[in-house]
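In this section we walk through a basic example: taking a raw amino acid sequence and producing a predicted 3D structure, encoded as discrete structure tokens. The instruction is simple. Fold the sequence below.
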Amino acid sequence: MAKFSLALVMVVSALAPLYPTLSETFGVAMPRILAGSVFLPAMVFGAWVWSRTHCFAREWPVVACILIAWVGLLHAGNLADHGGLRFAVYLTIALPCAAMIVENRWWWYCAKTFTLASVVTLGLLVYFEYEARNGVLQWSTFRLGLLRSEDGLDRMTDPNRLGMQFAFASVLAFILHLRGEATERAGSTTARSVKFSLAWTVPLSLGCIATASRGAFAAWFVGIGMLLVWGTRKLPTSKCKGLLAAFCMLLWVTMFVWASADVTPWAKLQERLGGSERAGLGEFGGRTNIWKNAIRVWWSNPEYRLIGTGTGRQRLILGQFDESARTDDRGVLVRSCHSVYVDWLLAHGFVGLIPGLCLLAAMMRRARSLDIQDGTVNRQAFLACMLVASATLDVWGQSGWIACGSLVLAMLSAPRATGNGPHTLAASAGSNRPISNGRYDDTVRSRRPLQRVGSWDTSGKLRDKR
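The resulting token sequence is shown next.
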């Protein structure tokens, strides 16, 4: 039941950007509080696990940031005002989910579920675009993900949000493929069960490009680039050649199909990067003006500088200072900061800045140390993808953060040993270092072999037996 609840979290998080379109298509409008109840089983199962499992989700910078978000919600004055409660809840749900992943070594399972669910999301999005355009797809003239309601008044999907999700999913797909290859080289008897096809990376990457989201494209470029340059260094020459050949073949076939159908999803992105919309590139699509106004709001009041505006209230205050503000469902002017870092600073001031910087440093340090231990760059690539996306996009203000945040917190949890030996260093499956007699040849010098246990395990079943 706990495993199913985690799978439900991954699937719902992946499909969440299409929820308004699905509701309109099937004529079923579910209240937001009821829609969020699908995450309740994972919270129930994971709460006790989080309280007793040593993982990165229990590190003090993580807990401090969560507490600041809830205290900031009380400071804002209204628990349900302008998404503040939703923001705090989404941040909190990632903790018990990550703890369950670590405790049961379900990282591979959850990452695979989220990746495949994102592929389904991409397929549904293409189908809805096809129907909206009366059977004609001309992506050179519009962005993928700009679906509108039947009356044309409301925008149902956000290309930036979808592009961000496809960027994360494509990087995850590549990581799963590389880890499957590494597990096979390690001589695992269950290598067949943890193989993951490289083919899923191509459509997800093209889906990210087709949204023409510059922030999402930058995040995808950094994550995939790190995996291509550093993630394949330890692979044998034959594997590198096969990987390159397979990737090029899949990309060539995909581009041939798109071009033969007179569909060019990269044209809109090229236009936004170097064409008619190039002038806005230096201003990050107008975001620099928003950030300037956010800083102006931050300096306008000593209280804002010290403790911020409060969780959720920063968008309301910024809406009063920014000329591009829009009215929400309640008719109130609001303005998103379009940056996790600016949003956090405006909402929590110097009080939130210190633990926020500590969390950022702890995540980068942990990702690097664990990757060095494993001889990979997987954690750093996925974390870099998320940090780049956070610079220009509201990453953790959406339900998709629950899945991605859980995976990030779980993969940053140090593996633990369950052997009877005195040493506690254990490693994850998929490392590029040779494994012999149940331990790493070049790390631990122990009289007794260790078992590999940790969230970074590929299937939860891989153990080195004595």
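Looking at the output, two observations stand out. Residues 340-374 form the longest helix (35 residues). The chain has a mean pLDDT of 76. In the next section we compare this with other chains.
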